[in-house]
Amino acid sequence: MASPSFRTPKGTRDILPGEAERQRDLVNRFGERARLNGFGHVVTPIFEDLGVFKRLGESTDVVTKEMYDFEDKDGRRMALRPELTASVVRAFVQHRPQLPWKVWYEGPQFRYEKPQAGRYRQFSQIGAEVLGTNDGAVDAELIALAWHFFADLGLAKVRLLLNSLGDQSCRPQYLAALTDYFQSRLDELSEQSQHTLQVNALRVLDSKRPQDQDVIDQAPVMVDFLSPDTGEHFASVRRVLDRLGIPYEISPRLVRGLDYYTRTTFEFAADALTSAQNAIGGGGRYNGLAGDLGGPDTPGIGFALGVDRILLACDAEHVFAGSASATDVFIVDVTGGDEASVIVGQLAAAGISASRAYDQRSMKAQFRAADKSGARCAVIIGDDELAAGTVTVRPMQGENRDQTAVGRDTLIEQLSKTLSDIRKTLT
Ligand code: HAM
User: Fold this and answer.
1) What is the atom index within ligand 1 of the atom nearest the CA of 302?
2) In this structure, what CATH number is given to the domain that contains residue 365?
3) How many domains does the chain have?
4) In terms of Cα–Cα distance, which of 172, 145, 132 is closest to 286?
5) If exposure means fewest CB atoms within 10 Å of the residue's CB, which of 34, 56, 171, 423 is most exposed?
6) Which atom of ligand 1 is nearest to the CA of 118?
7) Is 304 near ligand 1, meaning CB less than 6 Å away?
8) How far is the CA of 261 from the centre of ligand 1 (A)?
9) pLDDT tens readout for residues 190-232
10) For residue 260, what are the domain limits?
């Protein structure tokens, strides 16, 4: 067989029927949960001015190495979004909605990463953001939203890692202490981390290189430097999480891969996945971002979850298999095929999914196709039925396989009953 001339670009993949429905189902469940928690749905463009994303961090890989940026035909610097928080805050600044602004989103993100299992150049996120309040209760409620979403999917091996990164009132003192510490052990750090240190000491904590781990493990931690205000905020987040019964681990070196974070930061680790790609979601506060993007000083917090990785975690835990999208009915038309077109349309309009064969195949071939389709019921139309204004309904699953002649005008009614009887015997 000839090999195809084109394949999906490196780091991207086709999501085919079955898996795509499962993904859609997951997104719908998240959207419904968000709606019940008072979030509206927001959709922003897939590309923005490059400047919107610059604030993610001059020392982050996302900005320095992974941005899909390009010049448009008018010479503007644009970028495919690597994440949605910056876009949502840009939209907030542009439209100035009423506070608090609670929104959820879904869609593809683009990062020029080194592809591996669970790490793609195009991947999908679901997420939620709240702008306009600094109340620690919101931090806890957002975390609870994600936590219960995972539980609802059936995921049991998820851990919540929690930290506070402080803010301008205390972060500079911490950064100074951290920089001094790393300087004192500079020789032990990897060459890359020595370089990172010159730009942002916090980012060194993010290094996964084995050579750096011992130095990182003994580094001073932000929670010991929190000001009374940020300390009280962190305590309030933990208090509400305790009240909501959500378990967490304080992870004092969790800095996250983006620079906009202040105060609360968190990540969800799926222990069913290998550690390199076990972050199935993360988020935190970004109280300075709206100001940085030219808006009024407005606190914000949110999270994003990686859809692709969540589904990998579901596979690993054997949960959320997704509903098999079996066709309800297969039409076997031996009168030429036009009637099948009409009946498929009538059934779809009545909410009954239907399929059929094409190219005027033999009755035998059509029945083979009906079997393969997994349809629960066949509707057969031959010349006699056509003349009599009837069809034959034949159940293909369930206990009762008796076929019956049904008038075309009562077909929907009869089929609905037959399908519901089949469903009952299958469950
Ligand atoms: P993030 O940690 O960069 O945060 O991404 C969130 C999640 O997206 C990750 O935990 C992971 O599950 C998934 N993800 C990231 N990169 C990839 C990739 N290359 N392939 C597959 N999945 C990936 C953010 O994006 C922030 N916007 C979260 C946030 C919202 N913070 C505040 N509000």
Assistant:
1) 33
2) 3.40.50.800
3) 2
4) 132
5) 423
6) 21
7) yes
8) 14
9) 999 999 999 889 999 989 899 999 999 999 999 999 999 999 9
10) 19-170+226-317
